[in-house]
Amino acid sequence: MWFAITLCEDLENRLPLTDAAFSVGELDLAQVRTIHNLLQNLSDQKARIVEATLFARGPIDRLPPARLSGRLRRLVARYDRDGFAERSARAKEQRYISVKQCDDGMGFLSGELPSLDAATIWNRLKEMAIGDGCAGDERSMPQRHADALVALADGSGRLTCGCGRDDCATAVPAAGKRGPLAQIVVSDGSIGFGSFRGGSVGGGSFGGGATGTDAEGVPGGGSAAIPSIGFLPGVGPLDPETVRAAIAHSATQRIHVSAVDPVESAPDIAALRYRIPRALADRIRARDGVCRFPHCPVPASSCDIDHTVPFDHENPEQGGRTEEANLACLCRRHHR
Ligand SMILES: [Zn+2]
Ligand SMILES: [Zn+2]
Q1: One domain for residues 245 and 222
Q2: Pair (10, 80) in one structural domain
Q3: Does 169 map to a domain?
Q4: How far is residue 267's CA from residue 272's CA, in Å, rounded to a whole number?
Q5: Would you say residue 159 lies in a domain?
Q6: HNH nuclease domain location, by residue (predicted)?
Q7: How far is ligand 1, taken at its centre, from the CA of residue 170, in Å?
C-alpha cells in the first residue's frame, strides 16, 4: 500500500510527463514503476530534468523495463553526478558474498559487488570457459563458468579439460593447486579400506597437498569404487561420486577417515607427547569444523589445535594430555 501511495504521489507531484503518458495508456505499470524507482532519490528539480530528457529522446512506450532502466541510469549519472557518486560509495560499503547450503549436495553462492568487480570476475570466467579445454570437452558453458570459479579459488588458475583424453594438449595436471581448503569426513567402514592400503589409511587421511607430510596419496589415482557418503563439517552430506572425485584430486581436499587409526602409537604414550599426531589433528579439525570460540566462523583448516588444559613439558603426567577430549581448534585470534 505504502508503495502504491508514494508512486501516485510521485506521479502527481514530480513526474508530470510520466503521469500523462500513463493516463493515456502509452506506458504500462511496469514502466512507470521503473521510472519512479530510478528517480526516487533525486531532488524534485533533477527528477524533472531527467524525466524531460528521457521523453525528449523519442518514444519510450515500446521499451522493455530493462532497456528503460539502462537509459535512465545513464541519465541519472549525468544529471545527478554528485548524488550518483555519493550513492555509489554508500552502496559499495554493502558489498558481500554469501554461501548457503541447498539440497542434494549443492550450495548457493550469491553476493553483491561493485559492478566493475563483478564484470571482472564474469569476464574472466567467460574467458576461461572458452579458452581452456579442447573440442572434446562436453561441459556446457554454464557448467564451465561454475568450474572456472572453483579453479580460481583452488589455485589451479585454469580449467582442467573435461574431455578425459590422455593426449589432450589443453589438459592441465592438478599440480599447482594450493593446499586443502575443505575437509571431508568419511565414516568408518563405509570406505573400501582394502583398496587403499599402503599408508594413507594408516595415517588416517588421504592427500593433504602442500601441507601433507605423512600422507602418501591414493594408490591408483583413487579410481576404486567407494560406495560412501561423505560429510562436509559444518555444511552437510556429499554424494559418493563427489567423495570419489575429491579423493582422486587429493591435492585439493584432505579426506579424513574417522576410523580409529590402527597403527597410531598407543594412546597412552601419544597422549604424553606434546606433538599432536597428524591423524589425531585431522580428527579434531573434522570434529570441530570451525574455531571453538563461540560464534567464531574461522574454518578448522585455518585453526591451530590447542591443549585445553595446558601440556606440562616438565612433567607430562601432571599436565593436560594430547588426546581428543583435551584438544580444540582455535583460530589465531582466539588462540593465546
Ligand atoms: Zn581435452
Ligand atoms: Zn576464533
Answers
A1: yes
A2: yes
A3: no
A4: 9
A5: no
A6: 279-336
A7: 6
Note the ligand closest to the C-alpha atom of 334.
Answer: 2
Tell how far the Cα of 227 is from the centroid of ligand 1, in angstroms.
Answer: 28
pLDDT digits (tens, 9 = 90+) for 149-177: 998 888 778 888 888 888 887 766 555 66
Which pLDDT score, from 0 to 100, does residue 141 have? 94
C-alpha cell at 193: 579400506
User: Smallest Cα–Cα separation from 183: which of 302, 307, 276, 327?
Assistant: 302
CA atoms of 328 and 332, how far apart (whole Å): 13
| 172 falls within a domain | no
Note whether 217 and 252 are same-domain residues.
Answer: yes
Residue 130 cell numbers, joined: 572458452
Of 223, 238, 257, the residue that ends a domain is 257
- Looking at the predicted structure, is the pLDDT value of residue 218 above 80? no
Tell me whether residue 314 is in a domain.
yes
The ligand minimizing its distance to the Cα of 330 is 2
Evaluate whether 187 touches 228 at the Cβ level (below 8 Å). Answer: yes
H or E element in which residue 205 lies: strand 205-206
Paired residues of 253 in beta bridges:
182
DSSP strand E in 6-131: where?
96-101, 107-112
Rounded distance between C-alpha atoms, residue 336 and residue 333, angstroms: 7
Query: What's the predicted TM-score (pTM) here?
Result: 0.62
- State the distance from the centre of ligand 1 to the C-alpha of 158, rounded, in angstroms: 13
Question: If pLDDT is split at 50, 70 and 90, which confidence band does 61 have?
Answer: confident
Domain holding 101, by residue range, is: 97-153
Scored b (16 or more CB within 10 A) or e, 237-265 reads ebebebbbebbbbbbbbbbbbbbebeebe
What total of structural domains would you count in the chain?
Answer: 4
Distance from the alpha carbon of residue 132 to the mean position of ligand 1, in angstroms? 9
